[in-house]
Specification:
Chain lengths: 483, 672
C-alpha cells in the first residue's frame, strides 16, 4: 500500500522542525525566515510576520536574526499598536539573551524609553536612567549612544536636574553636531538655558538649530521660539491693538470667557458658559461634552475643569473636585497629575493618575497656568503676587503685583503662557489692561486698555506663537488681537 | 702590453678605445712602411685583428674598413714568407667574407695577390655598377645602408635596392644577380618638394612644420657654421647639427621651434621656398630663455622640494628660476608628503605655502578577495582621486604582512589600507589604520560600479577647524532686512557695530540671512570687512576662531584625522599649536585613548579667552581625567574648577554652549 502523500509532508515538516541544523544551513535558514517575516510585515500581515519570526527564534536562537526579530516585534507593539507592555517582555529577552547582538543597543534604548514613559513620578525614572547608562557603557561606539545621552538628558530634565540634563545634551552635540539627536538636544538645551537665566545662550542655541539643521522640523520650531523670545524680551515693541481677530469677525462668539492654546498651537474657546470649541480657520468646532461653568482647561485632552461638574475628561469620564472648590486654573504635568488652583480655599490640589491627591499650600489663586518646563505660574489676588512655582511646587520667583508698572493693579482676571514661558495677564485696578512678564518674572510689555484704544469686558487671554496676544471680549462677543 | 690592453677591451667598448686602436693601426703601417719591421708590424696588425675580429659582424663602416685594411696588410706581409703564404690567402677570403666590395690597396699588394683576390671575388660574387643622380642620397641594400662606391660585389640572388634623398621621391628596385654576373644600373631621383635645413640653440629643440613634429635637433654644428655661431655668441658645440625638414610643398608653411625653458619661435616660409623645389638652409635659430620663479615655504620643518622628480633643495625655497609650464611639485618631509601640480607662467612668480599630508600605503589583499583584479585596478588609480592624503600603491609581489612591517620599520607612511576578504560574503572589508593601530573598517561590494567611492569621500573630507569671525553673534528674525546682531564683541563694538540693528550688506554684497552672511564672510579677504547697518558702513576687523572636532561624526575618518592632526602639530606655533593639540586630543578621545589625549593636552596653553579657548582645553582635560576612572577624580575636579573660571570660553565653536556652565555641571556630577 503506498505511503499516503500527506503523511510524507507531515514527516518532512517534522524532520525540518526537529532535525539539528548544520551551522551554514542553519544560518541560511535563519536569514530566510527573517526575510520572509520582513516581507509579511511590509505587507502588513503582522500575525504571519510574527509567527515566522517566532519560528526563527525557536529554530535558530543563536542567530543575530533572532535578536533583530525580537526588536522588530517589540518596536511594533510599542510604536504601532501603542501597547508598550507587550513590548517589554521581548526587550527583556533581547537584553538577557542577546546582549552581544547588533540589535541589543537599540533594544535597550527602546526599553528605557518605554520605562521612562510609564513613570508616574520623578523617582520612577531610576530604572530607565540605568538602562540608558547601560547603552552608553556597553556600546560606546554605537550610534545609539547619541540617543541614549539625549534620553538621559530628558530624564534628568523631567527630574528637574537641569545641570545633569545639560551635561547629557552637551554630550550629544559633542558626539556629532549634525546628527538628528543633536537638533533635538539643542532645542532642549535652549529651553533650560533660558530657565537658568541665560537668555543670550538660549537664543544662540536656537539659532544653532537653524544653522546646523536648516531643513528640519526642529529648525522650524527653533525659528518661532527664537522670534517669540526676541519679540517679547528684547525688541519689546509697544503693544497695539490690531482689532477684531480673525479680521472682520464681529459679534460671532456668544460670551467667550476662556481662551487657551494647546501645545499643538490649536486655539480653544469656551463660549456661553456651556461649550468648548476649537477654532479651525475661522470656523468653530465643538470639542467634548457641553459642560457648565468651566474655569480652566488642562492639556493634552483638553480636560475641562468646572466647579459645577468636576473634572471632565471626556463624555464618559468625570472626576469629582473637592467640595466647595473654585477652580481657577489647571495643569496636567509630565507625570499625568492634574494641578488645580483654588480661588476660594487656596492652595493647589495635585491629583495623581493613580487617584491619590495632595495639597500644595498657597494663598488663594485667581489664576493658574502651566509653565513649559514643569511647574506653574499663578496669580494670587490675596497676596498680590505673581508666583512662579517649579515642578515640586517650590516658588522659584515671586513678583509683587504692579512691580515696575506706572500704577499698580489689584486683581488678575485671566492668565496665559506661551511655549517659551512668557506669562500674560488681564489685570484690573489702577492699572487696567494687559501685562506681560518673561519666564524669569521680569516685566517686558504692558498697556492699558485705554492706551490700546479698546473697551469691553475682557475675560480670557492667550499668547500666540507670533508674539501676539488674543483677548476674549465677553461683552462684544469677539476676539481682539494685540501685536 | 698594447696587445693585452686591446684584448681587454670590453664588449661594445670600442668607442672608448678608438684613439688607441687607431694609433696602433697607424703605428703598424709606419713600422712596415718606414722602418721595414715586418715582424713588428705583423704583430701589431695581429693585435688589431684580435680586437676587431670577434665583433666583425657588428662593426660600422669605418671599423669594417680598418679590419679589411688590416687583413690586406697581413696578407701582404705573410705573402712574403713562403711558410705563411697559405695564411695570406685566408686573409683575402676573410676580406671577401667581411666586405666583398673592398678594394685592395694596389700600392702595397702585389699583382699575384691582387689577381688571386679578384678571381676569388668574381667566382663568389656578382658585380653591380651604379650611377646615382643626385649623387648625395642614401643607398640601402636589403634595408642596410651602403657606402657609396663605383661598384659593388654582392651575393648572387634577389636583392632590394633603395635610393633616397630628402626632397626627392625615393626609388626602390628589386634586382636579380646571377653568379659571376655583372650588372649596371642608373638610378635617378625625381624632385618632389623643397627641404629646409635648420640648426638650433639649444640642442634638443623640437621642430614642428605646420603643427606636426618634424624631429628634434641633435649633435653639433659642422665647422662650416663657425661664422654663424660667432655672430650668435655661441660655440660650435652649442649649435645643433643640421635637421633637414622634408616635404616642403608649394604654399606657405609655419615652422615652430620649441624647447623646454625657452620661448617658442615661429617662422613663416613663404611660397618662394617651394617654387621651384630646392634645398634651403635657414640661419641658425637661437631660442630665448624663458623662466618664471617659484617660492615654496612650509611651517613644518624638514621639507625637501622636488620638481619633476628632481631635488631642488630644502625649504624654504625663494625665487627659484623654473621653466614655464605645468610641473609636478612634491615636498618630502620626515613625516608626510605634499604633492600638487603647478603651472608656472613665464615672467611670473608663483609662491606656495605647503604642509605635509599623511601618506597612505596600500598593503595589499588578505584572504581570497572576490574580483581581485578589478579591485586592484581601481585601487591603482586611487591616488588621482584623493586630495587630502598621498597615496602609495602596494609593492609588486609583497605580502600584506610584510608590507605592514616594512612600512612600520621605515616609517614610510602614516596610514595603511588593507583589503580583506569577509567570510562567506561577496564583499570586501577595507581596513584603514594608523601605524599605532587606530582603525576603521568599511565594507564594499567589488562588483559595484564604483565600490571605492565611499572610501574616497571619507578620505577627502578633512573639515576646516577654523571659522571666519567678525565679532558679532547673529540670529535670523522675520521681518528684518538682514541678520540681527544679538551680541557684539570687543573690536566690532569699538568699530561702531550696534546691537539689535539688522546688517544688510557685507563688503557690498546683500546678506538677507545668517547663512548668507557666513558665506560672504568666508569669501572675504583681507583683515577688515565692511558691514552695512542701517545704511551706515562700518569697518570691522576680521579674524578666525577655532572649532572643535566632533567625537563621533559619522562622515569623518578618524584614523585620517589623527594622522593629519599629528602632522599639523609639527608645523604649528602659538595658539594654532594649542588648538591643533586640542583637536588631536579629541581625535584620541574618539578611540577612547584618554591617556594619549591627556598627553596631547599636557602643557597646552592658548592665549585666547573667548570661544574655543583655554577654558575649553581645561574642560577636556577634566573630561579625560574623569574618563580614566575614580582614581583621577581629584585631578578632574581641579581641571573643571579651572575651566569654570573662564567666563568667555565655549565648547564646539564660538557660538557653542558655555564652558563655565558645562564645567560647573561636570563638577556637580562628580559629587555623589
Amino acid at each position: 500500500m503506498p505511503f499516503p502523500f500527506w503523511s510524507t509532508r507531515i514527516a518532512l515538516a517534522l524532520l525540518v522542525w526537529t532535525a539539528p541544523l548544520g551551522a551554514q544551513a542553519g544560518a541560511d535558514l535563519a536569514e530566510r525566515l527573517f526575510r520572509s517575516g520582513e516581507r509579511a510585515y511590509a505587507a502588513r500581515t503582522y500575525s504571519e510576520a510574527f509567527e515566522t519570526w517566532g519560528q526563527l527564534i525557536q529554530q535558530a536562537p543563536e542567530s543575530p536574526f533572532a535578536a533583530e526579530a525580537l526588536l522588530r516585534q517589540a518596536r511594533h507593539y510599542a510604536e504601532v499598536e501603542a501597547k508598550p507592555e507587550m513590548a517589554l517582555p521581548l526587550l527583556e529577552r533581547l537584553r538577557n539573551d542577546y546582549i552581544k547582538s547588533p540589535s541589543a543597543p537599540e533594544g535597550l534604548l527602546l526599553r528605557g524609553e518605554i520605562l521612562a514613559a510609564r513613570c508616574s513620578k520623578p523617582q520612577d525614572l531610576k530604572e530607565a536612567i540605568a538602562e540608558f547608562h547601560r547603552v552608553v557603557d556597553l556600546f560606546p561606539d554605537n550610534p545609539a549612544v547619541r540617543k541614549a545621552h539625549y534620553s538621559l538628558g530628558l530624564a534628568f530634565r523631567d527630574q528637574g536636574l537641569w545641570g545633569k540634563a545639560q551635561l547629557h545634551f552637551t554630550t550629544v552635540l559633542g558626539l556629532d553636531p549634525q546628527a538628528p539627536p543633536a537638533a533635538k538636544a539643542r532645542l532642549q538645551m535652549a529651553e533650560i538655558q533660558d530657565l537658568l537665566g541665560d537668555l543670550p545662550g538660549c537664543l544662540k542655541m536656537l539659532q544653532g538649530v537653524k544653522d546646523h539643521h536648516p531643513e528640519s522640523s526642529e529648525a522650524m520650531e527653533a525659528s518661532w521660539r527664537l522670534n517669540l523670545r526676541i519679540r517679547h524680551r528684547l525688541q519689546k515693541p509697544p503693544l497695539k491693538s490690531l482689532g477684531p481677530w480673525p479680521e472682520g469677525k464681529q459679534k460671532w462668539l456668544n460670551t467667550p470667557t476662556l481662551l487657551a492654546f494647546s501645545p499643538d498651537n490649536e486655539l480653544f474657546i469656551y463660549i456661553d458658559d456651556t461649550q468648548l470649541y476649537l477654532l479651525k480657520g475661522t470656523e468653530l468646532a465643538p470639542v467634548g461634552p457641553p459642560t457648565k461653568g468651566v474655569k480652566a482647561l488642562a492639556f493634552p485632552g483638553p480636560w475641562q475643569i468646572s466647579a459645577k461638574v468636576g473634572i471632565v475628561k471626556d463624555e464618559k469620564t468625570i472626576l469629582p473636585l473637592a467640595s466647595g472648590a473654585a477652580p481657577s486654573g489647571a495643569m496636567l504635568d509630565r507625570w499625568g497629575s492634574l494641578w488645580v488652583g483654588d480661588a476660594r480655599n487656596g492652595g493647589i490640589t495635585i491629583l495623581a493618575a493613580d487617584g491619590t491627591s495632595k495639597a500644595l499650600p498657597s494663598p488663594s489663586l485667581a489664576a493658574l497656568v502651566p509653565m513649559p518646563l514643569g511647574g506653574v505660574a499663578a496669580a494670587s489676588d490675596a497676596s498680590r503676587t505673581l508666583l512662579f512655582l517649579d515642578g515640586t511646587g517650590q516658588a522659584r520667583v515671586t513678583v509683587p503685583y504692579g512691580k515696575d508698572l506706572p500704577s499698580p493693579f489689584r486683581t488678575v482676571t485671566a492668565l496665559a503662557t506661551d511655549p517659551v514661558g512668557n506669562v500674560a495677564a488681564l489685570v484690573d485696578g489702577d492699572f487696567e489692561g494687559v501685562v506681560v512678564w518673561g519666564s524669569d518674572g521680569t516685566l517686558v510689555r504692558f498697556a492699558t486698555f485705554k492706551d490700546l484704544g479698546i473697551s469691553g469686558r475682557f475675560k480670557g487671554i492667550a499668547l500666540d506663537r507670533q508674539g501676539g496676544i488674543l483677548l476674549a471680549d465677553r461683552s462684544n462677543d469677539l476676539l481682539i488681537r494685540l501685536d | 702590453m698594447l696587445g693585452l690592453a686591446l684584448l681587454l677591451l670590453p664588449l661594445g667598448g670600442l668607442r672608448g678605445q678608438d684613439p688607441a686602436l687607431k694609433d696602433a693601426f697607424a703605428a703598424a703601417k709606419t713600422q712596415w712602411a718606414m722602418q721595414g719591421d715586418r715582424e713588428g708590424a705583423a704583430s701589431r696588425f695581429e693585435s688589431i685583428l684580435a680586437a676587431l675580429e670577434p665583433r666583425a659582424a657588428a662593426l660600422d663602416d669605418e671599423w669594417r674598413q680598418v679590419l679589411c685594411e688590416t687583413y690586406n696588410w697581413l696578407a701582404v706581409l705573410e705573402d712574403r714568407v713562403p711558410a705563411k703564404r697559405p695564411q695570406a690567402a685566408k686573409r683575402l677570403e676573410a676580406i671577401l667574407d667581411l666586405d666583398p666590395s673592398f678594394e685592395l690597396d694596389r700600392s702595397l699588394t702585389n699583382t699575384r695577390l691582387s689577381a688571386a683576390y679578384e678571381n676569388a671575388r668574381s667566382a663568389r660574387f656578382s658585380r653591380l655598377s651604379l650611377t646615382l643622380a643626385p649623387g648625395d642620397g642614401e643607398l640601402y641594400l636589403d634595408g642596410k645602408s651602403l657606402r657609396k662606391r663605383s661598384s659593388y660585389f654582392l651575393n648572387p640572388g634577389s636583392h632590394v635596392l633603395r635610393y633616397a634623398k630628402p626632397g626627392f621621391t625615393p626609388q626602390e628596385q628589386r634586382l636579380e644577380l646571377t653568379p659571376k654576373g655583372t650588372r649596371t644600373m642608373d638610378i635617378s631621383l625625381t624632385r618632389n618638394s623643397s627641404t629646409v635645413r635648420v640648426n638650433t640653440h639649444p640642442v634638443g629643440a623640437e621642430v614642428l612644420v605646420d603643427g606636426k613634429s618634424a624631429g628634434i635637433t641633435r649633435g653639433q654644428a659642422p665647422a662650416s657654421m663657425i661664422s654663424y655661431t660667432e655672430k650668435l655668441g655661441l660655440t660650435l658645440d652649442q649649435l645643433s647639427a643640421d635637421l633637414i625638414l622634408e616635404g616642403i610643398t608649394p604654399g606657405r608653411h609655419r615652422i615652430e621651434i620649441k624647447a623646454p625653458c625657452h620661448k617658442t619661435r615661429l617662422l613663416e616660409l613663404d611660397e618662394s621656398f617651394a617654387t621651384p623645389f630646392s634645398d634651403h638652409t635657414l640661419e641658425p635659430v637661437k631660442l630665448q630663455s624663458s623662466r618664471g620663479t617659484l617660492s615654496v615655504d612650509s611651517p613644518t620643518p624638514g621639507g625637501i622640494l622636488n620638481l619633476g622628480n628632481q631635488a631642488m633643495g630644502n625649504l624654504p625655497i625663494k625665487d627659484l628660476p623654473v621653466c614655464p609650464g605645468v610641473q609636478e611639485l612634491r615636498v618630502d618631509y620626515p613625516e608626510g608628503r605634499f604633492t600638487t601640480r603647478i603651472e608656472v607662467m613665464e615672467g611670473k612668480a608663483l609662491a606656495l605655502t605647503v604642509r605635509p599630508r599623511p601618506r597612505l600605503a596600500f598593503l595589499g589583499f588578505e584572504g581570497s578577495v572576490p574580483d581581485r583584479d578589478r579591485l586592484q585596478g581601481l585601487i591603482d588609480h586611487l591616488g588621482s582621486r584623493l586630495t587630502q592624503v598621498e597615496f602609495i600603491p602596494s609593492a609588486v609581489g609583497e605580502h600584506a604582512k610584510a608590507a605592514l612591517e616594512r612600512v612600520r620599520n621605515e616609517k614610510s607612511a602614516e596610514l595603511t589600507l588593507l583589503a580583506r576578504a569577509t567570510a562567506g560574503q561577496s564583499q570586501v572589508e577595507l581596513v584603514l589604520a594608523t601605524l599605532e593601530g587606530n582603525s576603521e573598517s568599511t565594507s564594499i561590494k567589488p562588483l559595484e560600479q564604483d565600490p571605492l567611492e565611499p572610501l574616497v569621500e571619507r578620505l577627502n573630507r578633512v573639515p576646516s577647524l577654523r571659522t571666519p569671525w567678525a565679532g558679532v553673534f547673529l540670529v535670523d528674525l522675520p521681518n528684518e532686512p538682514g541678520p540681527w546682531p544679538l551680541q557684539v564683541e570687543g573690536e566690532a563694538e569699538k568699530a561702531g557695530l550696534k546691537l539689535h540693528l539688522a546688517i544688510t550688506h557685507l563688503n557690498g554684497q546683500a546678506v538677507a540671512t545668517v547663512a548668507a552672511f557666513r558665506k560672504a564672510l568666508a569669501a572675504a579677504q583681507g583683515e577688515r570687512a565692511t558691514l552695512t547697518q542701517g545704511g551706515v558702513q562700518i569697518q570691522v576687523p576680521l579674524s578666525s576662531r577655532a572649532l572643535e572636532l566632533p567625537l563621533q561624526a559619522a562622515d569623518l575618518c578618524y584614523p585620517l584625522m589623527l594622522a593629519d592632526l599629528r602632522l599639523r602639530c609639527l608645523g604649528a606655533s602659538g595658539d594654532e599649536a594649542g588648538f591643533t593639540r586640542l583637536n588631536l586630543a579629541l581625535a584620541y578621545m574618539h578611540f577612547r585613548q584618554y591617556a594619549k589625549a591627556l598627553e596631547a593636552l599636557r602643557d597646552t596653553r592658548v592665549a585666547a579667552t573667548t570661544g574655543v579657548s583655554q577654558g575649553t582645553i581645561d574642560y577636556y582635560r577634566g573630561l579625560c581625567l574623569a574618563s580614566l576612572g575614580p582614581a583621577y577624580s581629584p585631578e578632574a575636579s581641579q581641571a573643571w574648577k579651572q575651566a569654570a573660571q573662564s567666563s568667555g570660553a565655549t565648547l564646539f565653536g564660538p557660538e557653542g554652549p558655555s564652558v563655565k556652565q558645562a564645567a560647573t555641571q561636570a563638577l556637580e556630577s562628580l559629587t555623589p
